[in-house]
Amino acid sequence: MITHLSAADFVTMPWANGKGTTVELLRVERVGRLILRLSRAMVVEDGPFSILPNIARILTVLSGPGFDLVGEGLHLPARPLHPVAFAGDIALRAVGVAQPCEDFNVMTAADLPPAKVAVYPAGTSAQGALLALAAGRIGALDVARYDLVLTDQPLLADMPVIAVQAVGL
Fold first, then answer.
1. Terminal CA-to-CA distance of the chain, rounded, Å?
2. Other residues' Cβ atoms within 10 Å of the Cβ of residue 82
């Protein structure tokens, strides 16, 4: 099965901490429980990240120079196109935000097997949830930058993509 989601399918909503907004690309719930959420957000200044108990998170900076995620005894560099995993129930702050950064977020229920997030160069086949990092083609589909293609079979992408494999896809 192949599903193509574009900007018309996405929903903008406030962050849990009220400090910004996120563009929700995909949300999977079962019996009212979050299983998987894929989203994009802008980090424009230093500040706290929302605390999300029982959620595992993986953040990938899409644009901008990146920043650091800092908490008690924890320092995680968030750099462009390098996925960073962390628990949602840890109090973290973005620090060193020198200019606006857009990021891609993968959130899963912490008691499920961890999601896998990988960045693939143009000309690579991948499957799962594929976030197009530029306009082009994924398989037979014409896609815009940041469109999402859900596929259970490997598809060739002529642009770089971020591929997510997780329960719920």
1. 11
2. 12
Structure tokens at 150: 């859900």
For 140, the token pair is 């037979």
Note every long-range contact of 119-122, with CB atoms under 8 Å and residues 24 or more positions apart, other chains counting.
119/60, 119/81, 119/82, 119/83, 119/160, 119/161, 119/162, 119/163, 120/157, 120/160, 120/161, 120/162, 120/163, 121/160, 122/157, 122/158, 122/159, 122/160
Q: Which residue has the higher pLDDT, 115 or 19?
A: 115
Q: What is the mean pLDDT of residues 66-92?
A: 96
One DSSP character per residue, 55-100 reads: EEEEEEEEESS-EEEEETTEEEEE-BT--EEEETTS--EEE---S-
Q: How confident is the model over 150-166, as pLDDT tens digits?
A: 999 999 999 999 999 99
pLDDT grade for 169, boundaries at 50, 70 and 90: confident
- pLDDT, tens digit (0-9, with 9 covering 90-100), for 3-26: 999 999 999 998 777 777 899 999
Contact 1, 7 (CB under 8 A): no
In the numeric block, the tokens 């896609």 are attached to: 143
Give the containing element (helix H, strand E) for 142.
Answer: strand 141-143
Kindly calculate the radius of gyration of the chain based on its CA atoms and give it in whole angstroms.
Answer: 15
The DSSP H or E segment spanning 162 is strand 161-165
